[in-house]
Write a structure and sequence with these properties.
By secondary structure, the chain is α+β, with helices and mostly antiparallel strands. It is about 25% helix and about 30% strand. The chain has a single domain, classed as Alpha-Beta Plaits. Keywords: ATP-binding, Folate biosynthesis, Kinase, Nucleotide-binding, Transferase.
Length: about 160
Amino acid sequence: MSPLVTAYIGLGGNVGDPADTLRAAFRSIDGLPGTRVTATSGLYRTPAWGREEQPDFINAVACVATHLPAQELLAGLLDVERAFGRHRDRAQGRWGPRVLDLDLLLYGDDVIDEPGLRVPHPHLHERAFVLVPLVEVAPGLTIPGIGRADAALASMASDGIQALP
């Protein structure tokens, strides 16, 4: 069995009832082989980013302890997306509406640059909608090659991000 690794997963969606979808996705991620969700952030309403002419997103972060290698964890996350009706279609373009988006943000302290997988997520340190829930779950976390997540968050505006009750 592979060693136990702490990984962080970003969740988001803006189609249907995204808050319910994210709560259900936490349970689905917890059901992946050799993987246990150890912490989840609250849910946050965030303005659409990239393509702004769409509904606001609901975002969150899950911390998991996993025995899965990074590529297998990513494959499991993509399976969860598909189970919720997400189809990654390049013809639709990036940053469009989606029922569920799961991103492998961090995998231990590893730096991975392989086809289809880059960890830390290449834009993690630039996106308040990911950093706000990440810092909630792991306040002192360091992003390999970048520095502290809370310092990255402090350097950007996050006033449009609202915690859901």
